Amino acid sequence: LQVAGLNTSDIDYLNLHATATKINDSVESRAVYSVFKNQVPCSGTKGITGHTLGAAGALETIIALIALQQQFIPGTQGLKNLDEDCQCQVIQEPLHKQDLQIAMSNSFGFGGNNASVIVSL
Fold this sequence. Notes:
This protein is α/β, with parallel strands linked by helices.
């Protein structure tokens, strides 16, 4: 956010890394909440695509761009019960939303190789 010259309120959608693993999702939700509180709609798309490993970051960035283009937040497919530890605004069902301009996508790799990208159209 700092490098992009943006504030937390500028992000309209956040694509979570969301591997559906207890530790990863807990750490990610705490990190997201520490920055955004529960003010940005989030979803995880691996329930749609599966975990594509090395391609996950690129694929989920494309999904974030399509979300902006279509003014549509994909739901978190397969999510039945949100963990009580998660305080993020997780979107479970697909949501059409007006004025999506900027999205962020988290990608976490083995050994702490982590990145977040911010995209806009």
